[in-house]
Amino acid sequence: MADYDAIVVGAGHNGLTAGAVLAKKGLKVLIVEKTNWNGGMAASKELFKGFKHSVGAWALLVFRREMIELLELDKYGLELITPESSYCVFGDPADPPFIGYSDTAKMAEHVMEKHGVDAIQGLAQLGEYIAPYKAILDAELDKAVPRPIEQIIAETPDAETRERLIKICYSASAMDILRMFLPDPEKHRCIQGSLMASAIDGTHMGPYTPGSALSLAYHYTAGDAYDFKIPKGGIGALSDAIEQAFLGHGGEVRYKTQVKSFIIEDGPNGKEAKGIELKNGEKITAKVVLSSLDAQSSFLRLAGEEHLPYDFASSVKEIKYTNGYIQLHMTLDKLPTFTGHMEIANENKIGWLLACIPSADHLQKNWEQYQRNEVPDKPVSYCYFPSVMDPSLAPEGKYTCTIFSHYFPADPPPGKHNEYKDLMAERAIDAIVDIAPDFRDCIVDKVVLTQEYFKKTFGVTAGDFASGLMHPDQMWDKRPVAGWGGGYRTPIENLVMCGAACHPGPGVTCRPGYNAAQEVLRTWED
After folding, report:
1. Which domains occur in the chain, in start order?
2. Cis omega before residue 480 (within 30°)?
3. Contact by Cβ (8 Å): 51, 395
4. DSSP state, residue 147
5. DSSP string of 26-63?
6. 265-297 burial, b for 16+ CB within 10 Å, e for fewer?
7. What is the pLDDT of residues 271-302, one digit of tens each?
8. What's this model's pTM, rounded to 2 decimal places?
């Protein structure tokens, strides 16, 4: 008899979600995690005494509130904060900042007043243009086996919509789409920069790269709306709530438990997963094993290439993960004072999240330097002060601050990693000093993390927070491997994928974990 009905490898939010769903249905479930905390790349940690920072993911950008109901997280202390504005994107003093107010009426008023009627019309037309993508994503979001995107497009009844979906899902760059509605490269530079920064998130692309339109559409349709929601207590509070739900249903979590390999044996229908073997030699058996890790970690490192069909293993090796970035966490003894055209950031907590993204062309120049393995001269800089919205994250009178920046060199020259990350951090800080001259004087402590930290700490292939880049050939039914139904089921019987490597994709959504658990339950009695 197996020790457990199910073992889940990885206590990130998707692994916890899968475990909670299975445990609620009465299965005996064990979750094992190599670190001593939950959340994976969506964790809140005390990097500095008395201060709590969200490490990795930091807000709910593509999250749907229905997951709170499905997982009953309101019963386990989850509280979401909706800020007055989700972002304030700024650039040159001559360009009005683009403020993403959560209230749609206020947002429309801002865009009309500061950016003009053509900006209102252009953004509305862009939303209408990508609406067919949202429709097909909504229809396939909860499917363990999403229909091939080619089939969906072919079955679309009118030619105009088919052409639109082909552009979005395959051929167009994000700028190809945007220029249809905001064609003037000078007039709406901050709006264009903001939209294009979303488009390249989770990709190895620039805003002009063919295929980047898909990421743009995903980021603006995968969630309820592209407004930021912040769990009180940091992003890890979501993982905490899911863990409490899991434990409340009788689940068991073992931390500091590193898996050496899956136990794979021959069965009547081919290879079967029978459990896990730990680094210390202990073997734990289960009727089904779920992996929330990325595909290369799951299949090549833990399952073993010798247990996989040759074509499948070859496809796994081809998955693209290259994704360079920095995350700079700081403590502050006071808030900076914003000056000049950004004085508005001192009011109404708008300054809780500021993003230096001067234009789409500026982002493209960063991308070009990144491809040359150079530190961008002026990296885009998302700077946020979480404790402004949630004072529980810092001691009274003190503040937390985090800067995230794309395009840190993915493969720095030998011996240059630390030098490059410190240089990029300083250049990202410079972007904020330009609008808040006293910013550096406010900083007490800081630590810089890159993709290498997440690679070493969590075993994430290349440190890629997307668990496989959001490229057209790595989404929908091709995620993580084409021909395997969205990636939940695998060539190994009773080995199921349950993380962001699967459909529908990355971001803190809980959806891959939920879908994977539903797939297990569908066949549980068979």
Report:
1. 4-36+255-320+467-522 (3.50.50.60), 53-63+79-102+227-232+322-463 (3.90.660), 109-185+192-221 (no CATH)
2. yes
3. yes
4. P
5. T--EEEE-SSSSSBTTEEEEEEETTEEEEEE--SBSS-
6. eeeeeebbbbbbbbeeeeebebbbbbbbbbbbb
7. 999 999 999 999 999 999 999 999 999 999 99
8. 0.96
